[in-house]
């Protein structure tokens, strides 16, 4: 989803309670600038997981932007939020940020119950696009023994037309094509 910066569409977070969780002063300053630029007025600035837990226990949060932080404390906070917080905060849309996005961090962000992960540095338009996407995407929440959060599958449109999902499908298609070629050669030889 790409927004045209020249678009006349207006999005405003004026009435949203936004929790920002980042343990670095520079990271927090950037997040504050971005969300206030998007109109947010009610901000909860948390520089530790403990502070974020206290805020989540006392206030209703409409959006949480959480940094992964050292040792994955941000991911642990999101998991805590999903499993321990009372309604409605356990359902709060969570955008995770991180400066490092190896596959293990992306998997951890997905598995802790985050909606989406954004790599630092990011532009304000990217944050707005992701916030709008989270608001519109409407994935159902799942509750299982090992996971609580939005459905991790974005959509299941199946394989593209004419393309199988598995290696065996591709092997079968290649074999069928080879048989057709052999049959054509036999027909030409017989004529």
Task: Describe the protein.
With 191 residues, the protein is of the alpha/beta class. It has 2 domains: 134 residues, Rossmann fold; 35 residues. The chain has 6 helices and 7 strands; from the N terminus they run E-H-E-H-E-H-E-H-E-H-E-E-H. It has a 5-stranded parallel beta sheet, with helices on both faces. Strand 1, helix 1 and strand 2 form a beta-alpha-beta unit. Helix 2 runs parallel beside helix 3.
Write the layout of secondary structure elements.
Blueprint: E1 17-21, H1 25-37, E2 42-46, H2 49-58, E3 63-67, H3 73-84, E4 94-98, H4 103-112, E5 116-119, H5 124-137, E6 141-143, E7 148-150, H6 167-190
Parallel strand pairs: 1-2, 1-3, 3-4, 4-5
Antiparallel strand pairs: 6-7
Helix pairs in contact: 2-3, 3-4
CATH class of the largest domain: Alpha Beta
Q: In one word, what is the shape?
A: elongated
Helix/strand order: EHEHEHEHEHEEH
Q: How is the main sheet built?
A: 5 strands, parallel
In terms of DSSP E residues, the strand content is 15-25%
- Secondary-structure arrangement, i.e. CATH architecture of the largest domain: 3-Layer(aba) Sandwich
CATH topology of the largest domain: Rossmann fold
- Oligomeric state of the chains present here: single chain
CATH superfamily of the largest domain: Response regulator
The parts where pLDDT drops under 50 for at least 5 residues are none
Number of strands: 7
- Class of secondary structure makeup: alpha/beta
Number of helices: 6
Q: Measure the end-to-end span.
A: 57 Å
Share of helix among residues? 40-55%
Mean pLDDT: 83
Query: Main sheet: which strands, in order across?
Result: 2-1-3-4-5
Domains (count):
2
Radius of gyration: 23 Å
